[in-house]
């Protein structure tokens, strides 16, 4: 299975840098796992299982990967530990293939859906509003016109933060301040986007997981109101997760997928952590495509997730 070299060198370097902490952690554990061994035997597989679980890949996903490698060991009879890297790369890419379709590299939206409406969900503190700002920047850079909707009206800081991003990226924002009805903000945002002939709409929503029933009702109401203006809106429900929280991010994904239908994931703060393996676990466990990955602070550090490039950056021991 070849790795598709489709990222620009600059993007690839940023991805490599962003995954450096995870990569060095995984490699130091891997080298210990195979120390003194020339072939992949039961002990190496046990050690490998420990490496993957401690790298936040998650238990269920780790067991799947180990099973796949066991099947190859049984088939090839003799697999050298020097080949383990390549095999890990192939099997993890294969696993990610099952929940991520296509090999996107650019910020695009379907031509037949204009405006393309993205409702962004996630708990406070995961980088949700920042991700919206960076998405607006990337879509605008790709030649798309963008409108922001400040429907996270539960916190004054969220509305103010989004306004700052709108100014920074120079895109219009629709807001009614704190404590406004989120559905009303969403309604106005879509009306404004249609009037402007916008390409993309990004709607920020509140992330109050401790009161799941309210959250569920609120998101359902926002969706219902949007559908009145643009049938089938939102076209995408993007859940933002903080990759540096590891297993906690998996738990948040579990809670949000119960509260609303999530169709895509964005994982932030991957660069500041050795827990990058969580991308593999979340993608596999929820069968929801990882669409965006944050590998640094800058606006250009939000990348379209490409599974082949991700695995290549993670397991290339150059």
TrEMBL record:
It is a peripheral membrane protein. Keywords: Cell membrane, Cytoplasm, GTP-binding, Hydrolase, Membrane, Nucleotide-binding, Receptor. Transmembrane segments: none annotated. It catalyses: GTP + H2O = GDP + phosphate + H(+). Its EC number is 3.6.5.4. It is found in: Cell membrane; Cytoplasm. GTP binds at residues 122-129, 204-208, 268-271. GO terms for biological process: SRP-dependent cotranslational protein targeting to membrane. GO terms for cellular component: cytoplasm; plasma membrane. SUPFAM superfamilies: Domain of the SRP/SRP receptor G-proteins, P-loop containing nucleoside triphosphate hydrolases. The keyword GTP-binding applies. Residues 289-302 form the SRP54-type proteins GTP-binding domain. GO terms for molecular function: GTP binding; GTPase activity; signal recognition particle binding. It is an enzyme of class 3 (hydrolase). InterPro entries: AAA+_ATPase (IPR003593), P-loop_NTPase (IPR027417), Signal_recog_particl_SRP54_hlx (IPR013822), SR_rcpt_FtsY (IPR004390), SRP/SRP_N (IPR036225), SRP54_GTPase_dom (IPR000897), SRP54_N_sf (IPR042101). The keyword Lyase does not apply. HAMAP family: FtsY (MF_00920). Involved in targeting and insertion of nascent membrane proteins into the cytoplasmic membrane. Acts as a receptor for the complex formed by the signal recognition particle (SRP) and the ribosome-nascent chain (RNC). Part of the signal recognition particle protein translocation system, which is composed of SRP and FtsY. Belongs to the GTP-binding SRP family. FtsY subfamily. This is Signal recognition particle receptor FtsY.
């Amino acid at each position: 299975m070849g790795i598709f070299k489709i990222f620009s060198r600059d993007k690839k370097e940023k991805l490599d840098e962003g995954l450096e902490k995870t990569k060095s952690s995984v490699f130091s554990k891997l080298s210990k796992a195979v120390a003194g061994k020339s072939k992949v035997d039961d002990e190496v597989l046990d050690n490998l299982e420990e490496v993957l679980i401690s790298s936040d890949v998650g238990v269920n996903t780790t067991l799947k990967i180990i099973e796949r490698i066991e099947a190859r060991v049984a088939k090839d009879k003799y697999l050298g530990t020097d080949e383990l890297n390549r095999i890990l790369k192939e099997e993890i890419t294969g696993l990610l293939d099952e929940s991520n379709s296509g090999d996107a590299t650019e910020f695009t939206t379907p031509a037949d859906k204009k405006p393309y409406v993205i409702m962004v969900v996630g708990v406070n503190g995961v980088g949700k509003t920042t991700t919206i700002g960076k998405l607006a920047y990337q879509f605008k850079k790709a030649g798309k016109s963008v409108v922001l909707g400040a429907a996270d009206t539960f916190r004054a800081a969220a509305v103010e933060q989004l306004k700052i991003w709108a100014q920074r990226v120079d895109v219009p924002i629709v807001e009614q301040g704190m404590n406004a009805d989120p559905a009303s903000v969403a309604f106005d945002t879509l009306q404004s986007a249609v009037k402007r002939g916008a390409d993309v709409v990004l709607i920020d929503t509140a992330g109050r997981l401790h009161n799941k029933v309210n959250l569920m009702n609120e998101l359902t109401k926002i969706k219902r109101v949007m559908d009145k203006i643009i049938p089938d809106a939102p076209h995408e429900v993007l859940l933002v997760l903080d990759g540096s929280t590891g297993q906690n991010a998996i738990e948040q994904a579990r809670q949000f997928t119960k509260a609303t239908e999530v169709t895509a994931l964005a994982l932030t703060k991957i660069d500041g952590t050795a827990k990058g393996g969580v991308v593999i676990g979340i993608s596999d466990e929820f069968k929801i495509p990882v669409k965006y990955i944050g590998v640094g602070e800058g606006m250009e550090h939000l990348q379209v997730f490409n599974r082949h490039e991700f695995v290549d950056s993670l397991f290339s021991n150059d």
